[in-house]
Amino acid sequence: MSRWAPHVLGLGTPLLVAVSLYVGGIWQGLPILVILGFYPLLDLIAGESGEVKGIEEDKMFNSIIHLHGLCMPTIVAFFLALVWMRGFDEFTWLGIVSVGLTTGASGIVAAHELGHRKPRSASWWLARSGLLSILYLHFTTEHNFTHHKHWARPIDPTSSPRGRGIYIHFLRTLPLQLKGALKARPKDTKISLMVEALLLIGLFLISPVILGVFLMQALVAVFLLEYVNYLQHHGLSRGAEERMGPQHAWESRHRWSRWTLMELPLHPAHHLTSSLPAWKLSTYEESPRLPFGYYTSFWLALFPPLWHFVMKNHLDRASTN
User: Which residues contact 205 (CB under 8 A, 6 or more apart)?
Assistant: First the structure.
């Protein structure tokens, strides 16, 4: 089997969300059960693999990445159209969470990968359209010009120090990332904020309910995106003058996370070779490895005392290596 084939599984998430939204009713909650219940189990069952072969398969990998990018604005527009036609009922809340989960998952995949492509290229604009659908246009600027410069340093707002919980980190990182983007590229960031403001005004004029639904799915998506940032560097640090290395980011080799998130868990390699596409990333024996995949770790992170307890020994080992 070609190495790209398992990565098609990640597209099953937005497809499931689209079908569940179309069917409507309580079925809109099915993706929540699958993503938050079934995927963590698959993370455990599928096990780990350090395989990184198959770099010649650029075309198929690239197509999958772009499909993730297309899914974001398409799913959001589809959902808002359905709410406009059907109205807001007790099951719309399920749709909001389902949409937020898939735009968050596909969003971090597409924005993380396509946001590194040549500025103003078609791929770059696709990443931007997806980020607009979750009101996070400044992510590309902050990620490329602040995070990649200062990752695992105290100055980096996306890197969480040891002992900080996900909720405190989320509330802290949002304004600091926006501040970082404004400092790095003030003109571009101000234009992005203006575009987002115009979108919000337009949605309000259509319907305050539509605006509310849009904002709530965006909140879910951004929380999921920032959970990934939280996970990737949690508790790892380097000094102001210390050279970056694979020991400053967490690596996960869990197959299900790697397959459905397009090699996002090979995060140390992304930082050390950010010019490479996701499917050409390598594993590093020197990198600390997460005890679980991204889906299973999500549940642990939601309970900070449990997360800190589970990560204690792993952080101790990472600090001594």
Answer: none
Q: Which two tokens stand for residue 102?
A: 């898939």
> Which is higher by pLDDT, 121 or 51?
121
Q: Which residues pair with 254 in a beta bridge?
A: 48
- Give the Å distances, CA to CA, from 207 to 98, 200, 202: 21, 10, 9
Whole-angstrom Cα Rg for the chain: 19
Contact of 280 with 308, CB cutoff 8 Å: no
Residue ranges per structural domain of the chain:
5-320
The answer to whether residue 90 scores a pLDDT higher than 60 is yes
Residue 236 tokens read as: 């790892």
d(CA 27, CA 29): 5
Q: Cβ(42)–Cβ(98) under 8 Å? A: no
Helix (H) or strand (E) holding 97: helix 92-114
Say how far apart CA 271 and CA 267 lie, in whole Å.
7
Per-residue DSSP letter, 151: T
**CA-to-CA distance for 306 and 244, rounded, in angstroms?**
29
DSSP string, 254-284: BHHHHHHTTTTTBHHHHHHTTTS-GGG----
- What pTM was estimated for this model as a whole? 0.94
- Six token digits for residue 108: 């971090």
- DSSP per position, 158-219: TSPPTT--HHHHHHHHHHHHHHHHHHH-HHHHHHHHHHHHHHHHHHHHH-HHHHHHHHHHHH
pLDDT at residue 117 in the model: 87
